[in-house]
Amino acid sequence: MKSRIACVGLAHPFEVGYDQAGNLLNTTVKTMCECGADCFNVGVIMHDLETVKKAAEILKANEFDILMICIATWSEDHHLLDLLSYTDKPIILRAFPAVDTGSLCCAHQIGAVFCDIGKSYEFVYGEPDDVSCAEKALRLAIPYSLSEVMSHVKMGTIGGRVKGMTEIAYDEFAIKEKLGARIVNIDEKEMTGVVSETDDAEAEKLLEEKKSSIPPCKISSTKEGLLESIKYYKALRGLVDEYDLEALAVKCYTTFMGKVCLGYSLLAEEGIVASCEGDVTSALAMKILYELSGKPVNNTDLLYLDDTKNTILFAHCGSSGFSIAGGEIELAPVRLAESGVCCKFVMAPGKVTALNLCGHGDKFRMSVLVGDAIPCGMEFPGNPVVIRFDQKVEDINEWIMKNGIGHHWMVGYGDWSDILEKYCKMRNILYYSM
Q: What would be the CATH architecture of the domain defined by 154-433?
């Protein structure tokens, strides 16, 4: 996910620095782009109603997540009020050091006005070519970009949720209100029908085509299990395409255990997240972490605390994307059912965010843990990850129980706690962290 940032200038013709406003805007945009932003230069220095309207016309013709106002000099603040009447988008106020331009005091003035009218904003101060300022602006933009992305997500749920797991019952209205995502309810026959209609010869051909997506690995599943699993991949891929889905949840336990796991792993490498046991909110949590990290996300249960090493073991049956493997990959029968194909491997070490999303209505809540995934063995048959935390694991355990957080944790690379806290504040989602 790249943050789409539009940049426009603001200056007063009477002030010192007005003649340099265009260069300042261009340098700011150039630095932002060099730091990885999808940055669009509006190319307008607003200083009267005509230039405000021109900027608004260009902005309306382009898609962006957040608008950066490059304040070159002191300016009349009503120009921004006029701009907001045409295009009311999230805003970053960008001020620049100078004794005589009045850039900073203008930013302070605008901040006061925005506060009084209830318009939230972000703020960055520094030289136009300052990389740290560009990186700060990028980080500030991410929650707004995430909000925009999630508001367009269509999430497919197949077969409902697992019986007896009331905790994961999902609230379509809360999901739409809080995240913006839409749930597509799909009868499991739409999946199984495709499986039954696909013969072994077609499955063989598809399996051969997908071999390039599967790294070299040990195979202990049967040929029958592989063919059945690739048929389920075909069915899931077809539903993703038919309904324009970006996330999936299948009620796998117990009927489809080991049948959809290989398909999940293949889809993960294609940018489609999929959660186990029909847990819709966990699939959406996976989507959030996928957008932030750009990598597949590990769907886990919290299984075991080691208070001596201050680590926690997280794992599930084995359906994560191959590209996060930290060692040998094995295509093996699923535990308990001892059939089908799971993609077993340990998760590679690195800084990780563990995310839980659950709840209903005003209790819709996100819980976040940040730690370091460390090297581990096959502690549990699936995709285990052992995470070391700064906080005591006994305290984490009590925190989970105190706040009713639940047992499904999605694990993605990177520390996104500040982004997620800001995102939850924006979307009116309860946020818990240690």
A: Alpha-Beta Barrel (3.20)
